[in-house]
Design a protein that fits this description.
- This protein is α/β, with parallel strands linked by helices and 414 residues long.
- It folds into two domains: 138 residues, Aspartate Aminotransferase, domain 1; 254 residues, Type I PLP-dependent aspartate aminotransferase-like (Major domain) (Aspartate Aminotransferase, domain 2), CATH 3.40.640.
- Helices cover 41% and strands 17% of the residues.
- The strands form five sheets. Strands 4-10-9-8-7-5-6 form a seven-stranded mixed beta sheet, sandwiched between helices.
- The N and C termini lie far apart (48 Å).
- The structure holds pyridoxal-5'-phosphate (PLP).
- Pyridoxal-5'-phosphate (PLP) binds next to α5.
Length: 414
């Protein structure tokens, strides 16, 4: 890249920050430094406006009404489905199922495909770095079906040990369910390779995209995953809505999930028939407002471009990593070969919760604890970490504030 191209490509972070109203508030009389983006990102004004515009201008239930408001709401809701299809490059819009988020998407697969296809002695593989949302549904299923849950280990750096994964695969393996990116370590897993190996063994693959959809380019066709679940709220969108992508032939062959309105063709006491995709899996009134506003979040992300988002966040990650390593007694947990902008650390003799509280007193929002990955914490022999996770609107100045906050906390607590 030439110098001019680099400059043109450079993000105007301060202009982006103006689009996030919450970033101008104070916390404990200090300007907010929000580093809890892996838990949920903040929302740009376009998303907040889309949400309130729906309620102010065309609030109505979707799909069944013939009046103008119902038609407008239906069109806006379905337009989000088209945007999601383009965002993850799914080949058909029917492959996009709206859910409450990643957790519901994974549960949907477990309760439908899982109940139909998993039997006694079958094996499901997950990794030790999974979020509880990608462990517990499979544990429930395995218990019910007398199936076996197998676990891929990670090395000290936080990389999956692919050779160990290969050893776990067998003709008993029916499913592999894996995080694209770890929320606790930031590790980017080699999903393409994991999927290839699973398919060679005759198994399907669910990808937990909760942490990847906002940072990485997602192309479900190229990835060749069978299912891909993600949440809008980690992607500058609203809470309470998300997506399960599934290959059409699989979704068609699966039994229904929740029963009720919207998911039926005809109901009688003798026999009920079900709607076609995607409505077959969308029982009841969905989260209309948030799903409509999700489109604005996707457009916001695409208008900046994933590559520019990534370049900016990687610069922050590398700066934060080098500044944190200067601090004596601080250890970074998770130094994988490929990472997104998540940095987890522990400090000798100090409890992560105390650090979190002292940093909050300085206006810095960090996440502390096990990050819904207790088995991973057990693997590293710790009860939790302090985690900073960066988004498009964060700056190096904010990292400096965090660093001096951490140093102050160490002084106060030692
Ligand atoms: N999987 C991963 C890797 C996550 O980080 C999270 C949330 O933190 C989830 C799943 C669950 O997402 P949600 O709570 O939006 O359903």
């Amino acid at each position: 890249m030439t110098e001019t191209q680099i400059l043109e490509n450079k993000l105007d972070v301060y202009a982006i920050r103006q689009q996030f109203p919450i970033l101008s508030r104070d916390v404990k009389d200090k300007p907010l430094v929000y580093f809890d983006n892996a838990a949920t990102s903040q929302k740009p004004r376009v998303v907040i406006d889309a949400l309130s515009n729906y309620y102010q201008q065309y609030n109505a239930n979707i799909h069944r009404g013939i009046h103008t408001l119902a038609e407008e709401a239906t069109m806006a809701f379905e337009a989000t489905r088209d945007s999601v299809q383009a965002f993850i490059n799914a080949s058909e819009r029917e492959e996009i199922i709206f859910t409450r988020g990643t957790t519901e998407g994974i549960n949907l697969v477990a309760y439908t495909w899982g109940r139909q296809n998993i039997g006694e002695g079958d094996e499901i593989i997950v990794s030790v770095m999974e979020h509880h949302s990608n462990i517990v549904p499979w544990q429930i299923l395995c218990k019910e079906k007398k199936a076996v849950l197998k676990v891929i280990p990670v090395n000290e750096e936080g990389d999956l040990i692919v050779e160990e994964y290969q050893k776990l695969l067998s003709d008993r393996t029916k499913l592999v369910s894996i995080a694209h990116v770890s929320n606790a370590l930031g590790t980017v897993n080699p999903v393409r390779r994991i999927i290839e190996l699973a398919h060679d063994a005759g198994a399907l693959v669910v990808v937990d995209g909760a942490q990847s959809a906002v940072h990485l380019d997602i192309d479900v066709q190229q990835m060749d995953c069978d299912f891909f679940a993600f949440s809008a709220h980690k992607l500058y969108g609203p809470t309470g809505t998300g997506v399960l992508y599934g290959k059409k032939r699989l979704l068609e062959s699966m039994p229904v999930f929740l029963g009720g309105g919207e998911m039926i063709k005809e109901v009688s006491f003798e026999k009920t028939t079900y709607a076609d995709l995607p409505y077959k899996f969308e029982a009841g009134t969905p989260n209309i407002a948030d799903t409509i506003a999700f489109k604005a979040a996707l457009e916001f992300t695409s208008s900046i471009g994933k590559q520019r988002i990534r370049d900016h966040e990687m610069e922050l990650l590398s700066y934060a990593t080098s500044r944190l390593t200067e601090i004596p007694g601080l250890k970074i947990i998770g130094q994988a070969k490929e990472k997104i902008s998540v940095i987890s650390f522990i400090i000798d003799k100090l409890h992560h919760q105390d650090i979190g509280i002292l940093l909050d007193n300085q206006g810095v929002a960090l996440r502390t604890g096990h990050h819904c990955t207790q088995p991973l914490m057990q693997r590293f022999g710790i009860s939790g970490t302090t985690r900073a996770s960066f988004a498009i609107y964060n700056t190096k100045d904010e990292i400096d504030i965090m660093i001096s906050g951490v140093k102050k906390a160490i002084k106060m607590l030692s």
